[in-house]
Design a protein that fits this description.
Blueprint lengths: L1 H24 L3 H6 L6
């Protein structure tokens, strides 16, 4: 149960960071340089 809550917290925070970054940037240029793993 603890590991499930921890994974939800980690993925939730990561998703929020990515969402806020894309929302504030309007373009994903910063996203491509920040996390190149996503564009594989």
């Amino acid at each position: 149960m603890a590991t499930f809550l921890l994974s939800v917290l980690i993925f939730g925070s990561a998703g929020y960071i990515v969402f806020s970054r894309v929302k504030s940037g309007k373009t994903c240029d910063d996203c491509k340089s920040a996390c190149p793993v996503k564009k594989v």
